[in-house]
Design a protein that fits this description.
Length: 442
């Protein structure tokens, strides 16, 4: 299922100035990256934020303000937050009679943006000439997703981490005080796990699975184009018999990744998917969907750790003004970064430290950054496809394309005589690798 993939080792292009991909940080409507990201489904709210009978909520995505609401039959709708009449805030609206009613003049809108009622208008046909802008909504993985692009929305992708019930998955989000792109690139950087996330682990299953990620040996990194983005291979020496640890992760177009995370201590059948969704050009939401087919995630432990690091509004309580409460003494022993054991905090802090919008002209890319370079080029190519009226890579239109068994995420051991390509090929079409195991729940 990975036909026509081509291994590449991108090198900096001396013919173009540094920072050539800086334009991809602009996600406003009409900007190249903004138009690209609008061609894909994006998560905008936790399902728990809008329960049945819940109050309308406002969400901001790529500098667009939207009201997400349930009507009085619990259908979910997404409309421009400003009322189409006099631009008052529909988050303040009343839920009644099949839609959301603006409290200013009583205009009533259904989930598709149709005006159902204009109580002060003399002509009963006046309402038929006006329509609020509405957006398709999809409920999956413990979140509501919307499509902001033109035309018929693509199929919602059947990614492994979004499958099954909540028994198999932990879903959360974090506020990020910087541009989406630098956060997304941090997720597909295979070297930083050996440093930023290094911890002193106790003996046990967690150390056995997670210890290879903190192996300081120089990694062998290569990348391969896939139909959904870029696959990363990271190999590290682990012994004298030629065996190597292999970690397979993925950049998933245009602002997601599929990697091994907290679920790794449970063995094969797990994946963490992350989305960095722009709020505007200076802020984003980091979405986490942590999945394991066994359904044995320590969700209460994860939740306790995350809650201990969050203040109000899914923001870290740690702030830049005091260096995020970094513990310099802990850096001498238990934690490399001195910010505790929460990897999400590590990632958010380090990418925020690059500035609100990372200035690429100041960076000096090296051979270990080939995944970053290839992801930027993939985004560049996709933005050009959109500009020419084509679907970009990773947009799903057919049921055949919507089979993601080839979105392989694995950490294991590569025998001396085995190739990484053969190792992954054996897993690409393996049934059940990410299928929720209902038997384990009994």
């Amino acid at each position: 299922m990975n036909a026509n993939s081509v291994e590449s080792r991108p090198q900096p292009d001396s013919k173009r100035p540094a920072g050539r991909y800086q334009y991809l940080t602009d996600t406003n409507a009409g900007a190249a990256a903004g138009e690209l990201l609008r061609r894909y489904w994006q998560p905008v709210a936790l399902a728990s934020e809008l329960p049945p009978g819940g109050t309308p909520i406002g969400v901001r995505i790529m500098a667009q303000d939207i009201v997400l609401f349930r009507d009085d039959t619990d259908r979910v709708g997404a409309l421009d937050r400003k009322c189409a009449h006099r631009c008052s805030d529909l988050v303040l609206g009343r839920i009644e009679h099949g839609g959301i009613r603006c409290p200013y003049h009583g205009w009533l809108f259904d989930i598709d943006g149709r005006v159902l009622d204009q109580p002060a208008e003399a002509s009963p046909a006046a309402k038929d000439r006006i329509r609020a802008r509405s957006y398709p909504v999809h409920d999956a993985g413990g979140a509501f997703w919307i499509y902001l692009g033109p035309g018929e929305p693509p199929l919602f992708p059947n990614y492994p981490a979004l499958q099954g019930s909540s028994d198999h998955r932990y879903t959360c989000k974090w506020f990020g005080d910087c541009n989406w792109m630098q956060a997304s690139e941090g997720n597909i950087d295979p070297v930083h796990t050996s440093y930023l996330h290094r911890l002193e682990l106790e003996e046990g299953a967690m150390k056995a699975r997670w210890g290879v990620f903190t192996n300081p040996a120089r990694p062998e990194i290569s990348v391969t184009d896939t139909r959904f983005g870029v696959r990363l291979f990271t190999l590290r020496a682990i012994g004298h018999n030629g065996e190597k640890s292999i970690r397979v992760t993925n950049f998933v177009m245009p602002n997601a990744c599929a990697v091994g995370g907290f679920e790794g201590y449970l063995g094969d059948g797990g994946v963490t998917m992350l989305w960095d969704v722009p709020i505007d050009n200076d802020h984003h939401w980091r979405w986490e969907f942590i999945f394991h087919r066994s359904g044995k995630l320590d969700k209460s432990g994860l939740d306790a750790q995350y809650r201990s690091e969050k203040g109000e509004g899914d923001r870290m309580w740690r702030i830049k003004d005091n260096n995020y409460s970094q513990d310099r003494e802990a850096m001498k022993g238990k934690t490399y970064f001195g910010l505790g054991p929460c990897f999400s905090v590590h990632d958010i802090v380090i990418t925020q430290s690059q500035g609100r919008i990372h200035d690429q002209s100041d960076e000096h890319l090296s051979s270990s950054d080939i995944a970053i370079m290839r992801a930027r080029r993939a985004l560049d190519e996709a933005a050009q496809a959109v500009a020419s009226g084509q679907d970009p890579r990773g947009v799903i239109r057919t049921a055949t394309e919507n089979d993601f068994r080839d979105l392989v995420v694995i950490t294991g051991v590569l025998a001396a005589e085995e190739t990484k390509e053969a190792y992954v090929a054996a897993l690409e079409t393996k049934d059940g690798l990410y299928t929720p195991d209902t038997a384990s729940q009994s």
